[in-house]
Amino acid sequence: MRIGVDVGGTKIEAIALEDDGGEKLRRRVPTPRDYEGSLAAIADLVAAVEGETGSRGSVGIGMPGTISPATGLIKNANSVWLNGRPFAEDLTERIGRPLRFSNDANCFALSEAVDGAGAGARVVFGVIVGTGTGGGIAVDQRVLTGPNALAGEWGHNPLPWPRDDERPGPPCYCGKSGCIETFLSGPGLMRDHAAVTGHDASPAHIVAAAQRGDATAEATLIRYEDRMARGLATVINILDPDVIVLGGGLSNLERLYRNVPRLWQKYGFSDRVDTVLLPPVHGDSSGARGAAWLWGHGKT
């Protein structure tokens, strides 16, 4: 049995998988917004899963941010109470066995590469567009991490080919301005809509208004699609993935899968871009499934 734990900003989800990927059990709890509480919640969740299944399993952890190869401490987590902490060391001690860790977007990409939207593809780029804008890479159904543990972090690069009204761009929590995340995250979409219209609206309300024929909401989504196309065209120019899979709350916007590939044709450095953009097969369970697959899978 393989157990995967997805440590999110609002919930921690654990999933138990059979060797063939069949789901045995899934449980979730709210995320405590402190370090010690998070360690305890994860350890208790693993114990609960093993107690209910009556089996002991390998444990993989998908988390915000990543473990710094230089220090062994967490860096770049938007769950800021994890940053600068020996999370891997402390959690391993709590659970009492070897664990494997990876960024949550890496786990998402791995899940969709193994038996999801990217199954059968050699290179899969997984994108999270929700509270933030993350990315992960799976090559031959294995996570690509890199010496700096930064592979896939497209969200903290500048928005490509910026228009005059997009410079210098909104400030980002990373300390820079104009990052892709500040445009393509859910809060980024809301900020852009409010800046143009003067009205605050959630992404769901913006989408609903556009569907009713509201011209300002439609214009907001058109700007969003063009920015996503520019950002992903740069990923395609560098990585040339077979498949890009969208996850996170904004991945439910069906029009993205029609419009963004049409738009990225003019930005990609090619006569034709054959990369496909797909919704996830496993939805919001992909992070936990990918964490479980950190210990390998039946196709390796």
Q: Which secondary structure elements does this structure contain, and how are they paired or packed?
A:
Blueprint: E1 2-7, E2 11-17, E3 23-30, H1 35-53, E4 58-63, E5 66-67, E6 74-75, H2 87-95, E7 100-103, H3 104-115, E8 123-129, E9 133-139, E10 142-143, H4 180-184, H5 186-197, H6 203-211, H7 215-239, E11 243-247, H8 255-264, E12 276-278, H9 286-293
Helix pairs in contact: 1-2, 3-9, 5-7, 6-7, 7-8
Question: Could you walk me through the main structural features you see in this protein, from its secondary elements to its overall organization?
Answer:
The radius of gyration is 19 Å and the shape is globular. The protein is built from nine helices and twelve strands. It folds into two domains: 2-103, 2-Layer Sandwich (Nucleotidyltransferase, domain 5); 117-279, 2-Layer Sandwich (Nucleotidyltransferase, domain 5). The mean pLDDT is 95. It is α/β, with parallel strands linked by helices. Strands 3-2-1-4-7 form a five-stranded mixed beta sheet. It has a five-stranded mixed beta sheet with strand order 10-9-8-11-12, sandwiched between helices. The chain has helices at residues 35-53, 87-95, 104-115, 180-184, 186-197, 203-211, 215-239, 255-264, 286-293, and strands at 2-7, 11-17, 23-30, 58-63, 66-67, 74-75, 100-103, 123-129, 133-139, 142-143, 243-247, 276-278.
